[in-house]
């Protein structure tokens, strides 16, 4: 039997999954979290899917060895590459970020998707929703990792990627956990289009499922321990620019995975 | 005794080193080349130096097993991380891209450097030249890898990074082999500043050294075989946008390194 007091593991290629972590902590303030940012190997989006799948398995294994009771793959590329296999083969509940946003998109008539190249090419979203338009946007992750979401550059890059979107798009899936930081720029280019952000929707699904399985922590304090494969201080600085106060961060070498 | 008819190995994290390859092929039209682009792990610039050093050793080992007579580390981050050790410990001549550009910079009074974070923080350039200004520009490599060097985005990003450069800069070292593609944008932001591109300078050094060691190939045909760790077709498409006609490309899995 899994221990309800065990932490929830959340992972992403870098800082993007912090949007999901934040939504989880708001909905589940009594949980403890382990957040894993694979900052030495970010970005995942241009890498072969098989490689990203291997990274996802490595990190899931690491988190399980830390004793997590559930795993949230807070990265669309990794979710596209590793789910549903990971969920079927692990002994703890595993949640991805693709399905929640794709389901929400079904309520709209004409839906677009932006994501990394790997996510767009994986075909993960069309399993759940018909897409009228999809575009890979390789520069958006580095733009966020560089902290430039409020810079005029963000608007120009968003325009570059979105200029050929259909004029009658009703909703756009932000198919990468980094993209919510760019909502301002994306919304300015596509006014009136609903921007579907998987962070909140995924957090709701996690909360529902943990409650249904009797896995909610009755006495946690909402702490987060961060693990990164790259430089911890660079991570701390960037995470804090993104509004995440990093109390504790540990460097994990790739050999430990 | 090394075989003068053996190929020259050239490597980079991605397509940036093609600027060096092109300069080499122009100066040494009778050589054969192996070009290695570590496209599954690009970019190197934000990764810990120790990791980049390991990558450089892995790739050098792979190229040696292919029988190269010399190795050109056509990547500033890898040159900063792995040289001079790599040159001291291998049995073939090894050339980096840092020293040639840094030497050329000594002819100017006020010199600046742009490069990846790892290159700037490594202190590799100050070993050879005093720098009045240095700046890490993490977005420039993804911008080139995305093929956007002629897009208005390039100008805006260049301005973002260069706006605090001293007004009386005489020369700027393009401390990354991807940056020559951005010469237009960089030159527009810093008119009148000499842009020092290591590709040509490194090729000259390689040509001189191979001649001095009697290692020039009398009868090669200027062919290049490309190796990549990521998707070969994506590489071919991008390389061709950069003006490199890719006749032969082979995928190398990271396990083969």
UniProtKB/TrEMBL annotation, chains A, B:
It catalyses: L-glutamate = D-glutamate. GO terms for molecular function: glutamate racemase activity. The keyword Cell division does not apply. PROSITE patterns: ASP_GLU_RACEMASE_1 (PS00923), ASP_GLU_RACEMASE_2 (PS00924). The active site is at 75 (proton donor/acceptor), 176 (proton donor/acceptor). Its EC number is 5.1.1.3. Gene3D superfamilies: 3.40.50.1860. Pathway: Cell wall biogenesis; peptidoglycan biosynthesis. InterPro entries: Asp/Glu/hydantoin_racemase, Asp/Glu_race, Asp/Glu_racemase_AS_1, Asp/Glu_racemase_AS_2, Glu_race. Provides the (R)-glutamate required for cell wall biosynthesis. Belongs to the aspartate/glutamate racemases family. This is Glutamate racemase. The gene is murI.
């Amino acid at each position: 039997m899994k221990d309800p007091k065990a932490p929830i593991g959340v992972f992403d290629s870098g800082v993007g999954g912090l949007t999901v972590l934040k939504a989880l902590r708001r909905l589940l303030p009594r949980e403890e979290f382990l957040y894993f940012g694979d900052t030495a190997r970010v970005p995942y989006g241009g890498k072969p899917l098989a490689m990203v799948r291997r990274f996802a398995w490595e990190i899931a294994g690491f988190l399980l060895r830390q004793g997590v009771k559930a795993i949230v793959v807070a990265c669309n590329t990794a979710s596209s590459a590793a789910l549903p296999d990971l969920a079927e083969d692990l002994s703890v509940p595993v949640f991805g970020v693709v399905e929640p946003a794709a389901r929400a998109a079904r309520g709209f008539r004409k839906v677009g998707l932006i994501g990394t190249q790997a996510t767009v090419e994986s075909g993960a979203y069309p399993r759940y929703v018909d897409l009228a338009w999809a575009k890979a946007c390789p520069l958006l992750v580095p733009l966020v990792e560089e902290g430039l979401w409020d810079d005029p550059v963000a608007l120009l890059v968003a325009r570059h990627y979105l200029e050929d979107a259909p004029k009658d798009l009703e909703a756009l899936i932000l198919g990468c956990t980094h993209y919510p930081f760019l909502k301002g720029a994306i919304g300015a280019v596509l006014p009136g289009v609903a921007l579907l952000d998987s962070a909140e929707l995924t957090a709701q699904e996690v909360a529902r499922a943990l409650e249904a399985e009797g896995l909610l922590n009755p006495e946690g304090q909402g702490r987060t321990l961060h693990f990164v494969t790259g430089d911890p201080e660079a991570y701390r600085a960037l995470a804090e620019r993104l509004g995440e106060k990093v109390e504790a961060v540990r460097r994990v070498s790739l050999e430990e995975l």
